């Protein structure tokens, strides 16, 4: 009875159906949710029209969410039972953007990063989840990959990693305004190919670029590149810990695949915290 009441409350909080894919960033505090709460959350997510859950990472630095207790593994098994397809994220390095600022050492860092991805894929196979794809938490931007040589080096690393993969790879990118919209679109189109899905973060939540600039970058993208609509508004200033509040995103994705960032900002989730 308690589970049914919780599910009913979550369904009342649902907005109109929106979006096919939804990002989820696991955090330590999520481990305190009960199995009944997870069941209600995933059923509500599916009822909202979501059919794919993109888990941004399964490990964050030294924190392994699938380790002791295995709460993430159990939760994602329930998500699959609720009818959600799973794109499972690999390990995220908290120092990723700091390391990306070192242009000279970046190609060597990518080698270590992708080697770690391969090792983790082996470990995650033991979870025995119906994984439909892998998300690589190496966010791309035209500031850290500002030179043609660095962009070419990353493309080489990605092609090498793609060899032998049986599931699609997903990556996301954002615009820092260093490349023109046309050059930026050509870069993403060149990275995308069979077995690789690129996603572009629309930047509406962080507002790092003016709205008219974001519109130009979006308009230049080929239809094959997916759009990630940011369902939040950043409230923290530069240099402060990230804070944001929920905001309904722009719903029109035009010809692009669409995803929403993120689960934590959706109305039915707030009832569980």
What's a concise summary of this model?
The protein is 35% helix and 19% strand. It has helices spanning 2-12, 35-47, 71-81, 96-100, 106-125, 148-162, 181-191, 211-220; strands at residues 21-24, 52-55, 59-60, 63-64, 85-89, 91-92, 131-135, 140-141, 169-174, 196-201, 226-230, 232-234, 244-246, 258-261.
What's the rounded overall pLDDT mean? 90
Segments where pLDDT lies below 50 for 5+ residues?
11-18
- Coarse morphology: globular
For the largest beta sheet, what order do the strands appear in spatially? 1-2-5-7-9-10-11-14
Sketch the major β-sheet.
Answer: 8 strands, parallel, barrel
* Helix and strand pattern: HEHEEEHEEHHEEHEHEHEEEE
CATH architecture: Alpha-Beta Barrel
Report how far apart the termini are. Answer: 20 Å
Radius of gyration: 18 Å
- What is the name of the CATH class? Alpha Beta
Proportion of residues in helical segments:
25-40%
Compute the number of helices: 8
Name of the CATH superfamily:
Glycosidases
In total, how many beta strands?
14
| Strand content bin | 15-25%
CATH topology: TIM Barrel
Question: Which structural class do you get from the secondary structure elements?
Answer: alpha/beta
Structurally, the number of domains stands at 1
Helix-strand layout with pairing:
Elements: H1 2-12, E1 21-24, H2 35-47, E2 52-55, E3 59-60, E4 63-64, H3 71-81, E5 85-89, E6 91-92, H4 96-100, H5 106-125, E7 131-135, E8 140-141, H6 148-162, E9 169-174, H7 181-191, E10 196-201, H8 211-220, E11 226-230, E12 232-234, E13 244-246, E14 258-261
Parallel strand pairs: 1-2, 1-14, 2-5, 3-6, 5-7, 7-9, 8-9, 9-10, 10-11, 11-14
Antiparallel strand pairs: 3-4, 12-13
Helix pairs in contact: 1-2, 2-3, 5-6, 7-8
